[in-house]
Design brief:
This protein is 47% helix and 8% strand. By secondary structure, the chain is of the alpha+beta class. It has a four-stranded mixed β-sheet with strand order 1-2-7-4. Helix 7 (183-200) packs antiparallel against helix 13 (325-356) and helix 13 (325-356) packs across helix 18. The longest helix is centred in the middle third of the chain and has 32 residues, at 325-356. It is globular and about 80 Å long. The termini are far apart.
Length: 542
Amino acid sequence: MAVDVVTMAAIGAILALLYYYVRSRYSYFLDKPYPHLKPTFLLGSSGPMILRRRDMIEHIKKTYNSFPDAKVFGAYDFLTPTLMIRDPDCVKQIAVKDFDYFTDHTPFVPNEHDVLNTDNMFLNSLFMMRGQKWRDMRATLSPAFTGSKMRQMFELVSESGQGMVKHLLKEALSDGSKQEYEMKDLFTRFGNDVIASIAFGIQVNSFAERENDFYMRGKKLLNFTSFWASIRFMLFITMPKLMLKLNIELMDREMCEHFHAMIIDNMRVREEKGIVRSDMINILLQIKRGALNHQKEEPDVKDAGFATVQESTVGKSAVTRNWTEKELVAQCFLFFLAGFDTISTALGFLCYELMLHPDVQERLYREVIEVDESLEGKPLSYDAVQGMRYMDMVVSESLRLWPPAPAVDRYCNRDYTFDDGEGLRFKIEKGHTVMVPVAGFHSDPKYFPDPDRFDPERFSEENRHNINAGAYMPFGVGPRNCIGSRFALMEVKSIVYYLLKSFTFERCGQTQVPLRLKRNPAVISAEKGIWIRFKPREVATN
């Protein structure tokens, strides 16, 4: 009996300590000169999303709209206080003007010295690099994403797009039922073939060979929803130092080693035989030789469209650093992730909007035909795609409605005092995260009137000057924006060109309208998939 009393007292003491600890964590914003969201015990401000009551974009929008008159407000990521910014000028001040204080993404491992010399593939990717190492890698890679390099890579992207359309036409003509496709699956296969060609230097056809080795290994590598993947992710969050000490990868180790060996072997063969191909393998070889440098670019930095981000002085700095093979190869995984997930998701939403708005689809088709006729039988070129003004308007609007990154974060690397010059002044301590709710800005009627309406005319030559550039961030903001925006836009526009040239996009029995997203805190995907019927045009079947 006495033992039971002691046990109950111990449990009560532990619960009381837990309660007071959590309460002390949730007192962070009480003395701050801006409002904050009331946290849910242990879940902070993320409760509705974690408990799957809201999808990710809906949650970000509702959070953004919590304090419509505030420039900034506080929120809690579980127990961690986070500052939310909802004013374009404040975003520019923190993410651009004072970027030196906010150079990094929120790290898995707070101590930078613990990850400087790691061989961990994920932590060696550009996305997770920190400090000077990130600056050096950004400057090393940025010459690979200029307009001139995109022109060189365009033929490889175009080949994958034409191969996909040729296969779909063949299926439609041989079997009328083979016209309804789920967009995520379709564009994941297309993205896989592009990345296999561009980043790994191999040719695959994931439509004719649906379970080819490269595609299946890629799916396994980037499967973040499996049981073991979830366990690894949670362990990296809770005990990152131990995971690094045990040399455990965030992604599947066997797959990491397989793709690493594939790239290294490809590089070796090319060096031995003098093979040159306009892809990422060639770029890695140029980096090894110190031969990849910035060339004088065209004066128009928006040559790839309105959504294209401009490279900052960070990316144009001179670099003399020698990179290890592991550090170089790790960058290919970013392209793998982008091709498998980000670009395929963006393409799915874009095709959905074209299906839902046949007038927009028809106008874009007319532009496609005009470009095709102007080529006079010559193959599609990078410059021809970039000259498609309405295509750019449509893509820009789709990225507004369905931003690939609905929120972006910046990590404060040393104490910083924010002062907007209008009376708002406060301190952001080292180690705190600042969040930019991109989906909130994109859906704010203050910046985009009637924001729920799909309206490409917002981005016309006549209207685009009305857009507050600081409120449109489909590829992030500041020097740490998406390095591959030109490549992503090139890939999206080229495949839409080929698809529209051969098909009309129509509803089918499985099409969900209005589209609803899965209530998943980790991914952005349609609740029932995005199903569209691709009906061959007569001109394509003749």
